[in-house]
Every structure is written in structure tokens, then in C-alpha cells.
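Q: Two folds, back to back.
A: First:
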Amino acid sequence: MSEPKPPTPTPGDTYKGWLFKWTNYIKGYQRRWFVLSNGLLSYYRTQAEMGHTCRGTINLATANIAVEDSCNFVISNGGAQTYHLKASTEVERQRWITALELAKAKAVHMQAESDDSGDEGPSSSPTSAPGGGGRTSEVQSTLRTLGCKVEDLCTCNDLITKHGTALQRSLSELEGLSIQGPMGDKIKQVTERATLFRITSDAMINACRDFLGLAQTHSKRWQKALQVERDQRVRLEETLEQLAKQHNHLERAFRGATVGPLSLSNPAMDNKGSSDSGKGDASDEDDENQFFDAMEDPAAFITVPADPKYHRRSGSNASGISCSDHGMDDQSPLEVEPVRQRRTRVPDKPNYSLNLWSIMKNCIGKELSKIPMPVNFNEPLSMLQRLSEDLEYYELLDKAAKCQSSLEQLCYVAAFTVSSYSTTVHRTGKPFNPLLGETYELDRLKECGYRSLCEQVSHHPPAAAHHAVSDRGWTLRQEISLASKFRGKYLSIMPLGSIQCIFEKNHYSWKKVTTTVHNIIVGKLWIDQSGEIDVVNHQTGDRCHLKFAPYSYFSRDVARKVTGVVTDKDGEAHFVLSGTWDEKMEFSRVMQSSKGENGTEGKQTTVYQTLKSKEIWKKNPLPDAAETMYYFSCLALTLNEPEEGVAPTDSRQRPDQRLMEAGRWDEANAEKQRLEEKQRISRREREREREAAKVTSPTEEGAHIDNHEALWFKKIDDPVSGESLHVYKGGYWDAKEEGSWDMCPDIF
């Protein structure tokens, strides 16, 4: 058996090799492959098992290392785990002991640093400007590396002192023995050499001690200087941002002051403009005299350039959209209220390792909502906040509310449907399951013109109701219940329930597609959306059929592709949509359709002649360093920001979620267990009350599965869509204005 190389005390290095591990009295010591990495000692039966099956892991940060004899040593973490190990030689055992002590010192130091950074909270990681953030992170990384090197040097210093003292003591005892002849001379020679080694080691230790003192002094000085520079940068950024916003407000106020009187003093000009816009945009023909390039989709339809005669005869602009986006700036008020500054960062995600398979291997085929999961797999947002995140692209609904044609309006509603999936492409963290009665409000009335409210209305099955209303002419409501199954290699999440969007004249509804999380056990997690959506206008019978193509390694299409066709009640196509659910969507007006040749599966392909495509939606870029902040979007970063006046049941008040966001995951796990146990006790009390009600009133037997009633929502049968769902019954915003929350249950 080849001996492993001596471990180099460098942060992040691993140490591997064969050791004999005590199993039981029948089999005795068995040969196992051990891997020491990142403060964790893991073992496998063979090297081939490293990719998929770990037999056990012990954390050295809380472990004790004891040497029994020349080849045997014991590692224990206080009784729960104890490894009796044996090396093949004494030299190999000493190499393992040295590597383990170094790894333990690093693990204890990293854990202390993690606790300190968790206590500091968001203030320890202020916002940095684009370009400056990279330099700051580089300096911080260099400081951390130097700090680790200094800690390693301290550990080596202690080990040399410890082992040198033991060696000198043993040689002194050996010299004291009365041994004559050549053996005595040899012992005297070894003793002299050991004395020289001790003198040299003492000199090196003194030099190391001086170096350590200088390094620690300069390190503190560098950190202070870096903190001063960082604070100055943050203050400069805030000043520049405030100046830019003041400049923007002054421009809008000036434009409103100059344009407004003109429109009031010349009503004839307004009448002329309105009558001209009603005739159709004939002046756009010269500017938009371009047509579609060929776009191919063999499984659904093909679009080709339309004949110019349709373009001139269409009586609309080239994009086919007659929504009037002008006039918003002209109506801006002269008095501009200051907009609240929202946060732009959350604490960085800690790098905690956890064996996923040890938790999930007994959960294959079960409901995800019934699997107890630690917060290590979560993101610091609840499912209610994820529902509210669907409103990130609310501007699409604002534009839809201004459309005169229901078919054009349907294009914007379909684009809004696709946009709600754009935030999921990198978000592999699981949101917190809301507690029964938990709520979440998102009040953006001043900034964006809307406010929304979510409430967890059922626990088994878990269901959440959402209501959002805008002063720009739309209302969004949804009730979502998740059905999820773990299949071993992937996790399927099937949203149940429907989403409804209501305008002044039209009422739309649709359902969500299936979300699949791949590489649950091995490999990098990635998310895919697949299925079909029918966005239906219940007033006119118009319909938009959207198809989310599942990812295929052998497909020549772009990944995450979405295609859609908008048709009227007679099935005639009017618009075509195409794009991806993680980047952008485009749409175009259909001038003529015809049946083409049979496709790859024997189905007849429809060919649409269309005008030039226009971009209808594009994903907002992620903030800087999003990969360290759970890949949150700019809106998601603000969802869990503390706010005054919210209900005591609001997700922002949830303690385990707040602790996780601060990086204190151990405390968050303990708090999560406490909240779940409290919810179980409440549910058992409701069951006892229901049983008592059955005894006193047998006629009510079977009336309710659970006697919990939502506080802010009530269940109705929607007369338009024919679906049963929870709708907002009012009272929340009045209670917030009055500051009266006596009716709210104590769930936290």
C-alpha cells in the first residue's frame, strides 16, 4: 500500500488514504478509504464510492482526537460518533494525526468566523458599486487567505513546540540510562543532534512568533483601512443615487408643468389627435416597411413574412398593438413624493455542506410538504413571498389595462404569465412552507400603483390565496396548492389551482406548468419548466395556447423555449408569441395562415404569415453578486426586508426565516422545529374541537375537513370561470391603518 504524501496545511486541500476502521467483534478492522476535506472526515468502502455513497462523516470542529499506541488512534465527537482507526505504520499514523489537527484548527476557526459574520448581519456586507465590488471581494479574499495562512502557521508552531518538547524529554530519559559501549556513544551523538535541532527550532519559532505578531498587526490595520474605503464608497454611491433621483423627479415635474398647460389651452388639438389615432397608424407604413424572417417550429407552426398588401391593408401599426403608452409622463404630478429606499443586498449565503442523500433516501415517492427538511436546502423567503414575486413585471398588466382590443390585451397577459417563471432559472433553494394562517403583504402603492396580500388558507393540502389590486385598472387573484413528488433523480412540482386577472371588460384565467428540479442526488441542480398553458378570456372566448418545451439534449431548439398562438372564439389566429421563459418574449400579428406539410410526428404544420416581431417582455438583469445571495432578483431582495405596521402573522416576522437570512442556520433549524411542533399542537386542538362538534351536532358531520377559517379570504364559486377558490373579503388594509391586529392568531 502506497503511503500518502504528507499533508500541506493549505486551506481547501484534501487528504486521502487507506486506514483500517474497527467495525465489530466478528469482522474486526476493515480497510476503508478516508477523505479529509473542509473540516470533515468521511470514509468509503472503495475509492469508486466517492461519487455516490458516503458511509459516514464526522465534523472535526467538535471532535476529539486521541492516540492509543504506535498505529491506533480514536476520533470521537462526544459519543454520537466514534471511529477507532489504525494505520499501517507509525509514520503514516503521525501524518494522519498532523493533518487531522490542522483540519480541526481550521474548522474551529472558520466556525468562529461564521458565527461572528452571522451576528454582524447585513451591516457587514454593504453595497458596492459595479466594478468596485470585484476589487473589494478580491481584497477580502486575499485577507481571508492570509488569515488562514497565519492560523496554519500558528498551528504548526504549536505542533513543533509540542512534539519537540516530547522528543527532548524522551532523549533526556534515554541519556539517563547507564548504557556502556558503542550504544552509549550512539545515544550521546543522537542527543547532541537533538539539542542542535532544538536550538534551531527555537530560533525558527521565535522568528515565526515575530512574523505572526507583525502579520496580525498589519492585518488589523489593513482591515480598518479597507472598512474606511468601503464606507466612503457606500456614502458616495448613496449621494450619487439621491442626486440622480432628484434630477429625474425635476425632469418629470418640469415636463408636467410645460406640457400640461399646452394640452389644456388647445382642446382642438386634442380632438384632432384623438380622431387621427382612431383611423389607424397610416404614417407607420414608411417606418415599419419590414417583415418577419422565417421562424421554424416543426412541432407547432411556422411563421413566414407576410405579403406587403396585408401590411398596407391592416389599418394598424406594424407591431399590431394599438395600446397607447403615451400620456403617462404628461400626467405626472408637480409635487413628487420621495420614494422609500429599499435594500439592495442580503447577507451572503453561508457555505455549509450537508449530505442530501442521507435525508432524501427514505423519502422517495412521498409528498414534499410532508418531508422534514433543514433550512440548509431553503432560501430565506416563504412560499407566500414567492407568490408575490410574480408581480415583478407588473408593467405588463399596466400596459394590458390600456389596450382597446381584447386580443392585444391577451398578448400582454400571456407575456406576464411567462415572466413569472424567469426568476426560477437559478433559484434551486426551497421556499419555507408557510404556517397555517401566515400572511404576507406587499404594499407598492406609491412606487408601482399596486398592493397585494397572501394568506395560507390550508395546511394539508398546503394552499395559499393571493390577491393583488392596482389603481391602474387590473386585479390579480390566485389560489395555489402544490403537489410534489420526489422520484429519486428529480423532483416534480405540480401547481394546482388557477390564476385570474380581471380588467374592466375582460376576465382571464390560466394554470401553471410543471416545475422539475433535476440532479437531486448527483451533479449540479438545475430547473426546467414544461407543459402547456391556456390563457382564456371568459368574456370573449379568446384564447392563448402557450407551450413550454421540456429540455432535451438532442433538440436543436434553444433551451427553455416558449411558443404561443392567440386565437379568437372561432379559432382564427391573430398573434404569434415566441421566446424563452428565462430571457424574453416577442410577438407579431398574423396576416394569413395556411396548412403546410406534415411534421416530424405526422401532424400537419400550420404556416402563419406575420408582420415584423416586436419585443413584448425582457427579463431584468440580476443584481451584482447575485450568486452569493441565493440568485435573488432586485424585487426578491426587498421581500423579507423588515417593515413597520405589518400584521404579526406576516412572513417578515417569522423567526426561523429571519435567523436563516442572518446566516445563523443552526438556530434557524431549532426554531423551525419549534414552530412546526407548535403548529401540530394547534392542529390537534382543532381536531378535538371538531370531534366535540360532531358529538353535539351530528348533522354537521363531514361538513369541513378542517375547521380552520381563513382570516382575510373566503371561499366562493366564481360565476365567470366556474371555479371554486378563495377571494379577498376585505378588512386587512383598514386594520393596518388603524393598527388593530387583535383578530390575528399567535402562530410564531
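A: Second:
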Amino acid sequence: MPQFQMSHQEQLLPNGTSDCDLWRRIHKGINMAFKGEDHLDSLPLPVQRMHLIQVDSVQRWMEDLKLMTDCECMCILQSKPISAEKDEQSELILSSQYSTSDNLQLLLKRAWIISTELTRIAQKLEKNRWQRVHSMTVRVNCHVRSMINEYNAFTRSSSEEMNQLENLLIDKCSEFTAFTERCIQVEDEQMLKSMKSCINETLTTVAQYFGQLIELVLTHEAQNLLRQIESSDSVYITESAINSLFSLTQEGTHLCRIIAKEGGVVALFKICRQDYFRCLYPQTLRTLASICCVEEGMHQLEKVDGILCLADILTDNTHSEATHAEAAAVIAQITSPHLTFTQHLSSFLENMEEIVTALVKLCQEASSGEVFLLASAALANITFFDTMACEMLLQLNAMKILLAACSDKHIVDTPYSRDQVVTILANMSVLDQCASEIIQGNGVQLLMEMLFERSSSGNSAEVAACERVQQKSAVTLARLSRDPEVADAAVKLSCIPRLIKLCRSPTERNNSDSVLVACLAALRRLAVMSPDRLEDSDFQQLVKPRLVDSFLLCTNMEESFV
């Protein structure tokens, strides 16, 4: 959790707790069940709606408007059925309107609103905005009741523990509302200060019960879906359950942890080992890739010999390209260099040759850019995972296959794909034999083109991918230019002027320091081979000084528009 320094404006409460401390405790209560994700500036994981955060604000307001304005009347209508005799029929109609996935999405949206409101209450309480605190408390009370009623309307069973938590949360919300109502009737400042500590405790308890209930509900739903997957012989029911499970994995890493702990990886690999469910392999593998972003999923994958199963799928030519691509996506996920818990994948080394061979073949035969991206991403990660992979790739003529693919704009059609290719080239370039392969495949020309990589959309993710392409192409040039033949080809293709431009013009490299360092390194390597190709000013500023001095000079350089 981030550390905050208490400002002189923060007043200590009567119990010795600052308002900032209160905010921390509220989030701790909400996130109590969500271990590892208790950052102050984060909402509880079930409601970390990243796709909501990223959409247009007006669109999000439109989506939330109905929930925000109708919560009180919804609460009353759902709590008091119009007809007791037709209650069972009404419940059936309500529950059949939406799928399990839709109902869970509604639940998560409601939970996101509640957690947002709790955070806002803490902010208003910090400023002693008692009228606002009370009105927002009433709104939270309504939302909590609506959320519980909505969930109970579509769930067929709930545990005694869940019922107890629901009652505790409702009671505490009612107590909270009554407490804040009394506060707005009090005018004595000293009395309000004394009441504030009790409100702090109540708010923290509400957040705690809310977090526990959401955790329990999501665990319950994950168990139900996994039970369907394990017990059903129906392709339709199993497919529906897997799709709902996949939707849950998209809500954040904590849901992936819940699914993994409840045996999700085991259940899904059972599907991948049954020919009867072959048509479900792609979505099953896609769900596995999502779950394996967390350590619990990786441990389960190792226990059920998941690597061996993936190797069998990749090497089985009777499977569809879609199945192979999704298996490649799982490999890309579990070998990601960003994960810190891949060291235990000992079985991966035992099957690496078969996997690498299958992935190279998938790159060569890919019918679309998406398939190539998944296969090349897996290969790129494997080159980080183990150095033997680079030698395997060289023996399999992977360099020639990748370079040929880059000439097909239908296959390598995005900066993301080029990022994977240049990553593989950069990691392979440490091998001496790689230089001749680059020359034969016209690879220097490709690296030169990659130095001009620019985003066409301005999307932040695409811009970052373009920066990586520029950086890695410069790194690859620097490594390969130890070979005189490669250095000569690079000089003839005017790589030196381009590298100088990238060093001197911040906009050309999108103000990226990593691109600058890589370009300086490549320029210095080429300057050793062809010093006469540099002007004296470039040599004095970009080559002769220490690398750090040239770096500082370029980062402080103002671009000329003359």
C-alpha cells in the first residue's frame, strides 16, 4: 500500500487516527480478501473494471445511470413482490432473461459502484461534508440491498455463511445510515468530532463485510461453473460454462486466483484430454491462458502435466489452426519474461524442442496475422526463458522463416508482430552464426525499416510497441555489426544517418530513453567500422564522449525547427 505523508492540514481524530489512515482502513476492509491487491488507489479486484475505466466517460455515465438513479425503487420492488402466488414464476422469468455471465456482469458493475461510493464517502467524511456523507450512505444502502436481491434472484443456492454475511452487511448499512442521519441534526462541532470516530469504525466494517461478501459470491460462482464443466457430458452446457469462466478471468488477476484455487486448471486440462470435446479446445485453452497469469495457476499447470498436454496438442497435426494458436497463447503466457514464478517449469525444458519446432511451423504456415502473433510471441518469450532455444531456432531455419514472414504485410501487419520478430532476432544475434543468416535473408534491410517504425493511430499501447521495435532493432544492429559484412551492409543502407536522427531528434524516438541508448550503442559500433561516414560534430558529440555524457547531451537537446 502506498505510503502517504500527513500534511499539516490533516487533523487527528479523537481516537488518534488521521483521515488518511481512515481511507487506508476502508480500502483494507474492501480488499481484505483480495491479498496482494490492497493498493490505496485501487478498487477491490472484482470491481476493477479496466474496460470500463478505459471507455469514453460519457458512455460509462450512460451505462451506470440506470443503476445510479433507480437503485431505491429497485430495492423496494424486489424486496416486496407484488403477488405471493406468482412469486416463483416471476423469479423464473427474471432469472431466464440473462445468462450466468450477464448476471455476473451486473453483479460486478453493482459492486464497482458500491466500492466507488464507499471511497467517495471517505473523501467527504475527511472534509466534514455531513449532508453529502448521509445522502451517499443512503445510496450505498440501496445499492447493497439491490445487489443482494439481484444476486439471490438468479442464484439457485447460497450457503449459510453467505446468508449470514448478507444480513451482517445489510444491518451494518442500516446502522450506518441511521448514524449519519443523526449527524446532520447535530450542530455542536465537538459532538460531531466525537461521533466521527464511530462513523469511521462503521464505514470500515461496512467495507470489510462488503469485500468478504463479494469474495464469497465470486468463489461460489466459480465453484458452480467448474462443477458444470467437470460433471456435464453436454457440449453445449460445457461450452457455456467455459465461456462464463473466461468472462470471469477478464475481471482481474484475483478472480484468476480464485478459479485456480478452486481447481480451474485441473478441470480445463481434463477437457483438453478428451477427444469428445475437441471443438471446445480453442476456448478452453484461451481460458487457461488467462488463469495462468497468476502463480496459483502455474503451480496447478505443473501438477497436472500441462506442458506435456500442450506439447501434444501443438504437435498433433489433426488439430485445427485455431487450437494450435490458442495453445501457443498458453505457452506465451507461462513463459512471459515479466513473470517471476516460471523457474519451477522444469517439465518445459523436457518438451522444449517439440514445442519450439511446432511453433516455428505454426509461424511458417500461419494464415492470419493473429495466429502469427501468438506463435511468434511464444517463441520470443522462449528465447528469454532458455538460451538453448536460440540454437534450436537457428537449426530450424527460423531466421529465414521470420524474415520471409515480415515481407508479407498480411501476416506481419502490426507493430506488435514486428516487436515479437525483432525480439527473436535480438536474442539470436548473440550467436556468431546468426550474421550470415541475416545477410542471406536481407535482414539488415528489415532492421533498417524497423528504425522508422511509427504509430499510425497514436494509441498508447501501439506507441509503446513502436518504441520497443526501434530499440530492439538498434540493439540487434549493434550486436550483429561486430561482423564486418553486416556492418558494411548497414552502412550502405544509410543506417548511420538514421541512428543520428534518432539520437538528436526526441520526436523521432517518441522521447524514449531506451531507444536513445540503443541507438547510441549501435552508432558507436558502426563508427568503429566506418568512421569516415560521420561528420566531425556527430563524432565529437555522439561517439567520442562516454556513453552517459552523450546520453545527457541528447536528452537535453532542443530540436531545431529551422
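Q: And?
A: The two ends are 49 Å apart (CA to CA).
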